Records
---
Amino acid sequence: MKFLKTLTFSVLWLLVSLTSATLLAVAGAALYFAPGLPDVRQLEDFELQTPLRIYTRDGKLIGEFGEERRMPVEFDEIPRGLVQALLAAEDASYFDHHGVAPKGLARAAFELLESGGDIQSGGSTITMQVARNYLLTLDRTYIRKVREILLSLEMEQILDKQDIFELYVNKIFLGHRAYGIAAAAEVYYDRPLDELTLAQQAMIAGLPKAPSAFNPLANAERALIRRNWILIRMRDLGYIDQATYQEAVQEPVTARRHITQAEVNADYVAEMARQFAVDRFKDKAYTGGYRITTTLDSELQPMAREALANGLIAYDTRHGWRGPEETDIPRSLAEAQERTERRGLEEELSESPEVMETARQAAERSQISVEGIDGDVSNWLQVLERTPQLGPLQPAVVIESEGREMRVLTTGQQIVTLDWEGLDWARPYRSPRSRGASPDNAAQIAESGALVRILQQEDGSWRLSQQPDAEGSLVVMEPQTGAILALQAGFDFDASKFNRAIQARRQAGSIFKPFVYLAGLDSGEVNPATVINDAPVVMQDGSGEMWRPNNSSGDFLGPTRLRVGLARSRNLVTIRLLQSLGLSNTLEFLETFGFNPERLPNGLSLALGSASLTPLEMTQAYATLANGGFRVQPWFIQRVARGEQPTILEEADPMVACRDCAPGQETTRIDGKTYRVAPRVADPAAVYILRDMLREVVENGTARGALALERSDIVGKTGTTNDQRDAWFAGFNMDLATTVWVGKDDNSPTAEYGSQAALPIWVDFMGRALEGRPERLPERPDAVVERRVDPDSGRLLSESQGGGISEIFRADHLPSQQPRRVEEEIEQESGSQGTGSYEAIF
């Protein structure tokens, strides 16, 4: 009995001594290490590295940039099962300890003594992992461990458990660029946290320990073992019952790698926003959690992308088949390897026979048979895997071409049959203006082993296609504000990242003519009934050479009213109009209107659109026509914010058009917000008259294709440049100003007019964009009046005179009623001479 008392006393004394020693050690460590410890309070406002995200104006994702894919969440947003899975995997006593788990520390101490200075398992609680991940280095030494313990104890005094848990789940790396549990749910399962099954939650909970070793994409078997162990722990800890455990443990591994998918495909605008962010925020752009909201309309942007792609494919189809992208592709990896060896490339591709043998074995193991195809097609599938889809065009390998039918293999091991209706367009391409004879059978188009493109049509059938040889741009602007609502700057961003909407300076051609006409209308020197001679003219350019501009049709109409001259896009009428206005006066007006004077030629070729301008610049100019003459500026960044609970850093303050504002009025209120009023740069009566003349282009001129929309509120102008290099159509109603450009990046001919290549794209887009929207026509200004004129002379008819045609005029600039000898006056005009460097632009 005495012995037991003595033993009990000794044990108690030993425990007291050990506890005292531990407390003294902790106190000593604290005194020794405290001066060099990081400040734990910085975690209260710690900013995680979060990628840059770009959105449409209604919050749809269009782009994400940054190495770390992260989606921070709050504790209340984490499913209860995932919290329990993480506790079971990492720290079951997390909500009971004060930052340090004695058992774990004892294990770490034992390993420290055994290894002589290195920590192996670590014995880290979740709090200690947060201290290490946020405040310390990742080296495994006892000094770091002591610092980790001290920081964890201090952290638990400052932050509550839920805050620490949030820091943990949002920081941890979980493989494949996923940082944090929400990002992992998207990467592996393409769904938000609250839609994960229990088995999927357990799979994610198994990743923090070893993101590579337990990754379901890299090692599904090992990941499954880890997941099931966590489920057992959850059952044993009482988090789930036996039935729930049995159901979850039977679930197969469903993880797949999911790349961030944009909700709206607008890569060109996303790249514009990325460049803006880098210019503004430098290196922090990709990590600072910036959220840029653009002005893009999530409904209009897909329409713009599809209309441009469809139009370019249609253009390409009209000009012939240029052949497969690749021919005679080996079916199997083994066959591809044999061909490589026969070409004598073994030494270039490997340094030893052992490497070559390994490659052969890998090829044999990779044999893939597809139902419906005899033999191994593993190499074909690899080729398809590495060949990206471009726009709506899918890659395919020809299996066989027999008679008037072609069978092809697509990505996903699908076999598609192309009938003759999907093949017979493929006459060989010879030049932009020439094609070969129609094919007689499918083998003349492409044979087995050829890589081609196919396109699914609206009725579900497939047809042969190819990446278009021409490129294009479609820009849509809101006339009242200048906001860019849609922008597609090429057939496909993956095929070419060159932004033709803002970087491609191309000759504007005849879509520039309306602004020369507006200069005359604004000055009051001409009106729609003014007659100008459409006749040959010869001028001397600055080099002494003679310039002989022509109309695109090659003919001449003689005395022509301006309304007809614009509708039919008569070059000679526009040149003589510019002569009569004076080049310097017109350039001054165009500069005020918004055109960069440095980009405008100082010569009469200006009348024909020889200025090199971007599609965005032309859209801005037409937006000014659409809003009644207010010079709005194009813009696409609506808001810049930061953080998941966004703090707004910048917000757009555009100048807007205000038709009802009094002259000199500087601000206006729209939907409760005050905006600055854009400067008026053209007389509203002149703009109204020009718009009416542009309607004539649609009804009786070069843009009659737009009548297919069956709307009276749309107007526009076609444009084609020298040698048919550029095809344009620009047009608008009161809601949308849209410009389409089609051309080739090397400036070679398209061999089509604007009415052929660009107008159908514009009609396709505007038809869908305006569907269901009521027609809107601008009110006629009080200063505009309607009168009857003589169609030959353009002079007013008196009330006593019959006949004539109706025309609109500015009330203070009515034409004369005096008789006119048109032929004599035109003859005098024809004697005018011009100087400068000229080029005929249709």
Note: The CA atoms of residues 655 and 678 lie 5 Å apart.
---
Amino acid sequence: MKRNLLSLLAVLPLFTAVCSEPIDSGDAIVIGNTTGIYLESESPSFSLRKNYVKPVRYRILDSRNTPVRSGEWPEAGRGVLTVDSLPRDFYTIRLEGSNYTGAVPFGIVPERKNAPNPDMIFAADSAQSWLAGAQLRNSRHPGPGFHLAAEAARRAGIGWVRDRLSWPGVNPTPDKIVWRQYIPSAWELGKRGVKVCTFYSSAPAWAKRKNRDLPDDLAATYRFARIAAERGRGSIEGWEFWNEEDVANTMEGAWDYAAALKAAMLGYRAGNPKAVLLHGSFSAFPVRNYSRVVMKNGAIHYFDVANFHVYAPLCDYAKRINGFHRFLAESGIPGKAIWVTENGTLAPGLAQKKSYIPNILCYSPEQENLVAEFVPKSQILMQSLGVSRNFFFVLSPYTEGARDWGLLNRDFTARPAYYAFATLVHTLGDATLQGELSAPAGVRAWLYRQPDGTQTVAFWSESELDTKPYDQFHPHPENRYERQFQLPAADGSYLVRALYGAASRVAAKQGCLKLTASRYPAYLTGMTGLVPAKPFRKPAGTGVPKTTIRKHVILRADLSSEFTVSNTRDSVDMKQDSGRVTLQIWNLSNQPETGMVTLGGARCSGLPTSPVTVAPMSCLEIPLTVTPQLDAAGINGELHFEGSFSGEKISPLIIPVHRYERKLSRFPSREFTGILEPKRWRANSSGAMEIRFDPAEKAIRFDWKFTVHGDRGDRWVYPEYILRGGETLRNAAAVVFEIKTTPSIPREAVFMAVNDWTRQHGKTTYIWYHNPGPEWETRRVSFDEILPEPEKAKMIRIGLNPLVNQQTFWIRNLRVIYHP
């Protein structure tokens, strides 16, 4: 017995140490409504998970970290804790004692009496079809959260969210459509009065005959768009075709995208005549020539709203949005309404705090505050610049590498920025922006008129978030940047709502109201008689230009291998002076179309000189041989197809020709022979990687192995080559190299220019190039528009994303071509 007791005492310290491990309050506390978002008419309630039930104290703090409630948990931990009469604000509840860490967030928002204002600018990209699915390793919420994300949108008062759809996922074969979570997720939003704008940026294999990414079967494109729009009607009231096609998600030319866009827009309109139609979002700035070529191809006649993405610092907004307005005016649609369908901030940097999910990082409280500060500032600034709808990225929880996006946490509780968003929407969602008030330097004050005729002033003090670009951004969270200013006001008491909705009152005396602005936006309500120093004038939207164009007849070109689409995808190069083109005339209507097509900018053989007839929902193919007429330098030209059917013009097909190889042959170049030395490369892959010189191929060889299941796993290999010994991209126009790979063609291939030497760090410019195959082929990566400051590159990565677990690729003869 004594020996057994001694044995027990020997292990007791270890047992005690294990039991005394800190417990995260988030693991112990269960919120009554899961998300922790409570309406003012509701009383927050909490319980303890069964394995954590014991006598314990709790404490509730408001957004200023001031204790507002505390005490013993009811029934020695077995009861439900209900908290009454909490005003609007963001709160945390935590368990007290040395064994407890962390806190559980919750908050109070007002209950909206009416449906959200359909014209409200404030919106959020929910992405819930992709991001709110079940995740088994999420111990606090392993099940799907589609309904939670939808309810979070409703409680915030948001009128529009943006979501996703997968064409291959729901329509894997021509005769099979299974909507999976996509349309039902939209219904969850629709039944709560929230409208959805959605997109897809991939096509099933059966809709692609030769293309890698875009559908080239325009009839299939039309049919799917019609069926999807019809099925989603009542919930999905906005449709985009593709996503960030100006920088990624397609290797086809801008003219090919324009043809597919036209087919999709016609399908959406047929399926839902009242839907808002948008081209796929353009995300590059300055706007690239790719986007201009899309518009020149007649895309302006098919969509209602222009679509852009912005992840720029706040100080860059005016330049970007004004640039978008100029681009639209140059394209022939001045004043076209603009939706920014993704608007996020990189200011918080990489996540710094460990999450409760293994190997996942989340934002620190200081980083959370930055996002909360950003939300109202970005929305109001976008509105002041004439943006019609601005979708914050993103509502649903989303971890991307070491970036922690989302207004909701991984357990679907709401983060501080959510309550900042809800306060903004409930305060200004029904109001009309009148303009900006005069204020001291460093203070911004925006005047809004409410439906009842009173005025609300949204105000803040500028911080480094407002004034610094990302490469100069160094946050100072301890500095509130408090600045005083004053407004004329009738004597009396006025209500101020803080960032998260907490109320306070200020008094006007002798016709003057003195206020303190901080970096965190606040809202002064109940004002009258104020006049903006800078009145807001909303750009007049044009909608779809009035035209008699026969929209259902669409021209498309199937180019032979004699044409090479540039990596900027805004032009083609030609190996010879002439090339073969199969002209496609698509009729996406239910009646025959008869007409003629002409070609400008080239000599042509094979084009009919008499009218042709195209049957309903079909395509007529005409083989041609074309010889572009180039400029005096023999570099630039354009294939310009036009036509008239049933007495009306059709939209053009315009393919710019740029003899890039001919131009580059006149430029100086330098071969980087160091690429053949294995020691010059640094392994950088999600799998095991070997680098060696292959004497038989006279090339550098990369072999790697992965242990990934499925064809969409996390396989990537991008070895890093640090520039040294006089190697530079200064004044570089392009990089040319030979490459081959085996045994399979990869999912995608990318060249990267990196402004750093550190592995996986530094500002990186991604340039997609055409997938290599099993034979040696030359790839040219042009820097035009894509890499405006090549001299900043200190390292390059060349690689690909394989589809199989074991593959090899080789590179040789890498040359940098410089501007003369």
Note: The first helix runs from residue 2 to 19.
---
Amino acid sequence: MLAKNRTAIWTSVLLGTTMLTGVAYAQEAPGGNAVEEVIITAQKRDENLQDVPVSIQALGGQKLEELQVSDFGDFVKFLPSVSTQPVGPGFGSVYMRGVASGGDGNHSGSLPSVGIYLDEQPITTIQGALDVHVYDIARVEALAGPQGTLYGASSQAGTIRIITNKPEIGVFEGAFDAEVNTVSGGDQGYSGEGYVNIPMGETMAARIVGWYVHDAGYIDNVPSTRTYPTWGGTINNDDFAEENYNDVDTIGARASLKVDLGENWTITPQLMAQRQEAGGNFSYNPLIGDLAQARYRPEYGNDEWYQAALTVEGKIGMFDVVYAGSYLKRDVETASDYSDYSFFYDTLFGYGAYWTDNLGNPVDPTQYINATDHYTRQTHEIRVSSPADQPIRFVTGLFYQDQTHDIFQDYQIDGLGSTLSITGKPGTIWLTSQQRDDTDKAVFGEVSWDITPALTLTGGLRFFEAENGLRGFFGFGSGYSGSTGEAACFQGPITPQAPCTNVIKSTKEDGNTHRLNLTWKITEDHMIYGTWSTGYRPGGINRRATLPPYKSDFLTNYEFGWKTSWLNGALRWNGAAFFEEWEDFQFSILGASGLTEIKNAANAEIYGIETDIVWRLTDDWTVSGGGAYTNAELSDNYCGFTDAKGNPVTNCASPLSPSGTQLPVTPKLKGNVTVRYDFVLADMDGFVQGSWVGQSSSYADLRLVERDILGKQDGWQTFDFAIGLKPGDWNLQLYFNNLFDERASLFRTTQCAEAVCGGAVYVTPNQPRTIGLKVGRKF
């Protein structure tokens, strides 16, 4: 019976009878129980969702509240075209429409393929998406497919935009919310949030938002011992064992100001800052137990960032002019256990014999990592738009961004002799002290022509120039290696804490992407469109001297979509079918000595269909949801090496992944359904709501041998339930997330190369069943 029910659910997803949408700042639509209008800015104009010929899923502020969304992971599960590889707060890799190779996500690896924006400004850092706390948010927009005309380099496969609520002039309002919750098998969490909108005369207003959240831990670091065969000693984790040790504390604020300068000009400066302190690790080892693992050194992560942004909007003659600029600074401090690497290399290769003190006596070979990452990112965009009501209209602009990453990773062994250590750093067996810089410049333009009142042709181009550079030090001390690390240095230090410099490399390239779209407005409520678009991701350098730079990879997208309303506006059904070609895609792996290697791997083809619907059955009953079917596979063999010019070799006797191999990360099927009933009880508004989210199985790696070691990520489904009342200005909600405590596998990984560390595979789960109570008031 359960199998039949699952089949029925997935069939309904593919037929478009499951639903997902959200209300942005909505206007009341005509027609009784008609679905509300959704206004978005995906094309950098205010437009009705139903008039925009792009595959977009929008979760509005009201919908975000209804779904108990508070962070990135909460809303991603309701976006069927989006997949993630989460490893902890602020460091999840994000993918869209199956454009994923499953690379290792190292600091010197490829740039992300999905752009993340906070309002007008990109916030995609090199190693992962910022975990922006979701409160007082107008909407989240997910633009699937290449966005290479109006968006930049990291929007190869799609773009996710988090749009904040802006100050409202002449309005005083505010709210506060408090929550307590408990996690099954874990601890208790709590939060406090609030905002206030303050008018300041007739031309100015400020909006201030603040939050503090304590997320309960649910992973146990259990008491354990480990014996090294070569060294012969036994270690324990008595000093670090702890139940529910992966708790997180998040504190942050956002302040924005809106100033009207006459009738035509407005400036909106905004400052947002957040600090997140996470303890422990967010995965478990199934061989040790459910939600349990054994770590032998301290583990934590402190992630602190702020973004200062400025948006200027105005008119010059008949043209709209917008400047959007920002400066982002992010500092991350982490400590990580690396004992699996030590143990398995000792077990397989006798590495424990190499680590001695100054007298030549063996020492405990357990490694651990202390790391700091400092990111900066500045972006500037200026664009000009012609009037939207003209039969021929355009958007054109200039874009510049520069992002830096100062990398410091200190691999330590307690008691290690000074002759084996990095010069000036006793106990450091390996050091990375590097500076990475990625620059992107672009000029873009898009023109739309209403051939007839019902038929519109749109074309766009984006010309770009991208540069990637890396300089500094990486490797062992000269007493351990005679050819790498310090032995390979060619000049003095140019980065902090490095003994010398052994890498200064850069690469530069230019090119263009395009978009061509034909839209047919069949009726006022029915529109179809076809799109041919491309997206790219810049190339970069390999720090290993023997490897050439890797080249840009390009994604070509062919898409047919529809935007429709039915039943006098009570039913909205949108969707798209697509076919994509991914050329010479970049793939990052751990190579010799645990060094990341990035190579252009092979070609892939991806096709699928995505759909979202909202249906107001009556004034009281609403059903919404969405679904996606994605088939992503290699169209050439992946052999694992390139020719002298860096082009991937696809003709080999024993490919690591043959043509037809399914790409990793993305499930073939993903969907969700939410059913909501609104009622009135004793003059109080109330609701009852249930949500289902599910997906089919997937793999974490592209290579067949490695995916067999890691194992398949089984499909899963979860159910959420909530009930609430609104007595006057107050609101009260009781919710049950992951009601049946389903254990989902979101990511599977090992601490070092799978062939070595495959004896300890770690699984990142979803959060266990969480029961929470929320109380809030608006004024």
Note: The chain has a mean pLDDT of 90.
---
Amino acid sequence: MYFIDVILPIPLKQTFTYNIRKEEASFLQQGMRVAVPFGKTKVYTGIVYAVFKDKPPNYETKTIDQILDEQPLITQRQIKHWEWIANYYMCTLGEVVRAALPSAFLLESETIVSLIASEKEVDESDFSDEEFMVFEALQHQPSLHINDIRNILDKQHVVKILDGLLQKKVIEVQEEVYEQYTPKLKRYLKLASNYASEENLRALLDTLTRAPKQREVLMNLFMLSAQQKKPVESVELQKKSDTTASVIKTLIDKGVLEEYFLQRDRIQYEGEEASEVKELNEAQEQAFSEIRSNFDNQDVVLLHGVTSSGKTEIYVKLIAELIATGKQVLYMLPEIALTTQLISRLQFYFAEKVSVYHSKYSVNERVEVWNNVLNNKPKAQIVIGARSSLFLPFSDLGLIIVDEEHEPSFKQYNPSPRYHARDAAIVLASLHQAKTLMGSATPSLESYHNAETGKYGLVQLKKRFGNVLMPDIELVDIKEKHRKKLMKGHFSDHLLEAMHEALANEEQIILFQNRRGFSPIVECTTCGISPQCPNCDVSLTYHQYKKELRCHYCGYHMAMLQSCMACGSETLDAKGFGTEQIETELSSLFPDHTIARMDQDTTRGKHAYAKLIEKLENLEIDILVGTQMLAKGLDFRNIGLVGVMNADNLLNFPDFRAHERSYQLLQQVSGRAGRTEKRGKVLIQTFNPYHQILQQVSTNDYELMYKQQTEERYQYKYPPYFRTIKITCKDRNFDKMQKAAVWFGRALELKLGANVLGPEQPPVGRIRNQFITNILVKIPKQQSLGKTKNYISKVQRSFNAIKEFSTVRLSIDVDNY
């Protein structure tokens, strides 16, 4: 008897063993998918992990349902990489598989209900109304999908009703696996084979003299076939003939035309031919040769290049060299907004060799990219993607570029696996013996520290492309401006003056405010109460365009109140301001100019980013207001002024990375200004212009910020000198959650002592009706990371065995960036 170990996409630690026949054993390989029964009725898609002949554990193994692939869908290197992620980030392999595979590959079972064929009469008097409705529906068709039953009864929970019918032995239930991926088929037309001879064709045309529309279709078919030397699409022929589908259908019914279908990828490149790679300038050329010489003895190189120094052109030249050897390249970006701008730039150089992979793509599109990468097709030699793209099945990876490597968006927070894409990419590259190039104008402290200590290579690019000057950054003291009554709404006189000047010069403006919505707090001026979210410990944010109050943590929303809920007074006042309020103020201050907003509310659609960016590039937008999406390395040619509305809410954040993040964000936002000939201007409004971070931003002094921050980190035992693991406890019952967290903290202290901090509640202590508390474990460099994790896992196993804490949810976040 033969057996296989299967990884299931569920959060359980081990693989599961199933028995298979001898011929299945000779066919199955690691990385293939199989449908397997699990539990009482469920069928899951599992990934074959190992095939073996030995006797399995002491339990009865089940047989597999079916084999789903003819070739492995997942490579051995991928499984190794996923095992590393599961091991390093302390999660299960099943969770990694669920995150890694497009959902179309994870076939799941659907419940199919049918009547039991029986000779004896069914006693209908015993049925409830809902049971009778299901029974009656099954009289008319042999089987029903569970969703059909939900629709019939207009109910979401139908298990109890089906259970009643099962006990009465009226119905039977089975699980059926369904395929989510549907290939895209295109319809093509050709002349029927019996009209191939000239005389038959002439006779046909003579008979069609009284059907001019049908004759026109045929003439166009001949013309298109002669012109393009490729199959003629049904849609194309219909358009060209300026006719209707019914005319074409008549010709098919008559047997004059034959239709056939071909499978087509959903993403086709139909642009121009690839262009020559641009010549680099002197500074770029030097950086390029330094990167190559660093790659001789280092696998990872950090390119620290100021904003608009032309890092992308260096990447392009590296990619061009590498793909000439036939290897694959992964170009990772933190944000989908960036991919839309970069796709056209890379397609300009590499045409159809570029594929894109991120969450705004449909399930079917992602499956096609996956298959193209797996089969090493030329159209997927270069993959641009967000963090999920590192899960693709590369077979011959030569280079990974991690652009804007400092971005927090590279870190996955929820759900598990809580991996950091930058670090996981370095491991992926080492599995392929490939190189990693990380680029940023404001590198993360960890990466810069690794470069300083010789773990990574370091290449500096200090000048902007074309020797354009760095933007002129000014700090505006709004405390002083308020005192002198020089503020107009949230705009200082200085900012308004600069805006008028930029618009007069036909330059565009970006305004940055890191809060979406109209106002973060609505407060009653009579009793001081502000509406709170019922599920989270936060105030509701006012969104004017929908006239509603919304929670940005759980999505709860309600209509804007007319009067105070507590005292009934109609004295509600909006405190603070978000992007929406800035947009409203701008409409009255600059009525003759086009104003747009870029935040989570305006970029929900698949192509929303691309449309906004295109409008800005085509100079259709004069002023763009946005959140930190604006700071993500976008390249706009005509931005003369960048205004930061309020820098203080970035700095006063309870997190040891707050100052580093503030510096990065402000420097990146500033970098959007003056990217061509003219020097750009940046105005940062603040109540505290003498803050060291703001001073460092205004002088563009990354080295000083790095020096000060690393000294503080060393003193207070934080990364890059100590590793951190955050353990979070969540429960609906506050006392139970607190008790569980204290137990866990004490258990960790037994062995890890003073390096365990907490339990401590975060600033927002309740989200989605779950109370939260955190424990932070600090691990010195000399302490074994593996042994510490093993000890935490041991404590976790003991914790899970305590019945009292069974409802408390634990999550572990390694390197909680």
Note: The chain has a mean pLDDT of 86.
